[in-house]
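= Tokenised fold =
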Amino acid sequence: MSTLTLPELLGIRTGMRISVLNPPEGFLQKLEPLPDGAALIDSSKTGLDLTLYFSTKKTDLVEKLPGLARGMAVTGYIWVIFPAVTESSLVPTEDFVRMLALEVGLADDKKLVPELGWSGLRLAWKPRAPRLDKPQIQA
């Protein structure tokens, strides 16, 4: 059992700008206390450091994820949190979230169960191939 708090597990640090969308009842209280200077906001001109998006429908996620990615800071993250177990084909799954993220230019780098009955994948911008000082191609 982890001794870390929920904000620590989610990677919330001092001064972060955080947005929480569609949280289940009581979730926001579990985030308290936030680290010094961390704030829950709706949007930021310089991009959000962290977005927590709870999704129960694939269609909503497909519609919303591109906009969430555009509103994210270069070094920011998006936690897509979805029901852990479902019988419905309309509810996002881990594989669905991964494939959608790749289409938007994001990749998952962490997995978490932030709340009983929910799973989450943390998405970040896909790393680019290192830039070479000298091209490898021969003329």
Remarks:
- The longest strand covers residues 72-83.
- The helical segments are 6-10, 27-30, 58-70, 94-104.
- The chain has one domain: 6-125.
- Residues 14 and 36 are 5 Å apart (CA to CA).
